[in-house]
Design goal:
With 125 residues, this protein is mainly α. The chain is built from 5 helices and 3 strands. It has 2 domains: 30 residues; 83 residues, Orthogonal Bundle (Arc Repressor Mutant, subunit A), CATH 1.10.10. Strand 2 and strand 3 form a beta hairpin.
Length: 125
Amino acid sequence: MENCVDSEGSFTSQRCSQSLSSVEDALYVIGGKWKLKIIIALQEHGSIRFNELQRIVAGISARVLSNELKDLELNGFVKRIVHAEQTPVVVEYISTDYSKTLKTVIMSLSEWGSTHKRNIREDVF
């Protein structure tokens, strides 16, 4: 949101609107309870089958995982690989290079979350 302030220290509504719109877009794509957990699991484990992924992302139902994977694939974060030559057909999911661009975002969120949890425990507020 630094872009909201011009060189004289004044807020500009256009810059704030653009920043807010960008944040809203990002949250729309990666927000929710499960998407970042799925992305992190795929980045940590590499190629992984659906049932394995469901075990790793504890608490997610098969239907929700399926829908989240479709959304993540649509947005370029996940690639679905079908091995039709095998019987039964094997389907694996992998994170894309594009999903790896979220690494700094995930690390920043992790650090912020740790700090926030510590502040809450120490009753800083």
